[in-house]
Amino acid sequence: MSKNSVFVLDTNRKPCNPTHPAVARKLLTQGKAAVFRRYPLTIILKEESKNKPKELRIKIDPGAKTTGLALLSDTNMVWCAELEHRGFQIKDNLSDRRVRRRSRRNRKTRYRQPRFLNRKRRDGWLPPSLMSRVFNIESWVKKLCRLAPISTISMELVRFDTQKMVNPEINGTEYQKGELFGYEVREYLLEKFNRTCVYCNTKEGPFNLDHFHPKSQGGSDRVSNLVLSCVKCNQKKDNKLPANFLSDQPKLLALIEKQRKQPLTDTAAVNATRWKLKETLEAIGLPVEVGSGGLTKFNRKRLGISKSHWADAACVGTSTPNSLNIKGYQPLLIKAMGRGSRKMVNSDKYGFPRGAPKLRQKSFFGFQTGDLVKAVVNKGKKIGTYVGRVAVRKTGSFNIKTKTELVQGISHKYCQHTHKSDGFNYGFGELVQQKVKVVKLIISQPTNPTQLNLFDTTEFSIQTTNTKTKHTRKSKRKEGEQLS
Ligand SMILES: [Zn+2]
Q1: Of the four listed, 97, 270, 399, 441, which is most buried by Cβ atoms within 10 Å?
Q2: 130 CA distance to ligand 1 middle (Å)
Q3: What is the pTM of this model?
């Protein structure tokens, strides 16, 4: 049984404290509440609530394919979800359309001049595939704000914090210089070498931080001396000098030499979509806290939580509590499906019209394509119960896509709504069984806090904490530290 809270609204639709599923069930059986929405499960009370609800924080880890969402109240997990975007699908559809139009211009159809120089892009324009991700997240934050007493937003803005690398003292928190700083450097190197082993070009992790010029041979701890290497190559290289290790590949040696000395520009850390998202979230009117990817990973490791999109979301930002229990939680899997297409006639793979034009009418017998329905069929060939997404037909004979199969020809008479189409599809992820160890915050005291400058690679250095050196020695790794 999932511990994900059930959202509660009072009779005036004012959000109240989310409650445990068992309490919600009791309220429903006693007739004190009714189901308001199925996904996310929300109940509406039949009376007004006078209590002031406890404020919640929504945390967001935006990703290219999937975004993690988590609701936290102080140190407690309240609700979590993973939102799957359709960015790549949008891109495919648009390039598909472009190809069709281009081919139409060369065929014997009415001539339509190619249009160009008539388009202007507004400032801050982003491709539709990227904007779709921003809109998905915006609509979910707004939706959750209507269902729960949310007062603050946290989001991951950048992969690594160049600010902290430039001037570690900038925020004055002790741990930033020590272990956290290491995490920022790791994220920085992963980005710099494009998550690829410099020696064999594999993209398969885990990666090690390799001291290009070995430490035992006098190599430094500076970031410019660190390269990304897979575990195999790292072990093979051991403490050999780069010139010896790559004696038969002088080209590669020269390439790595060049690459490692080139600092990443600031722009590499900046992800346009995330900045756009920040702007959008700020427009909602709630305070927005931002964090870096390095900090997220640091927090997640500190809390001993295994990686998932929603767990990452829960660890975003400095507001992350010192302990977080995620056992018994199950993320709601939300998949953006779009709301149909504007195409009035389907086309075959050559772009020719296929079949009759689409009807303008979208809903038939009270159902619309995309609604989630339950059909209990008690006679005929298709006896059984089917739960899933419906595709409507004018005839009233619908298709239902269940978890496992596509069932065709189910009459509308058997169908009942569970959730009306809202552009998303829903499911549930795995229930977390993992026991969480509570780890105390490790505060390390660097002996010599050096001023770091991102654009001057010679000034880079890594401060290793005592705990980390011990760890490295224990696992007999000579020249590298494990990355995951
Ligand atoms: Zn390798």
Answers
A1: 399
A2: 32
A3: 0.74
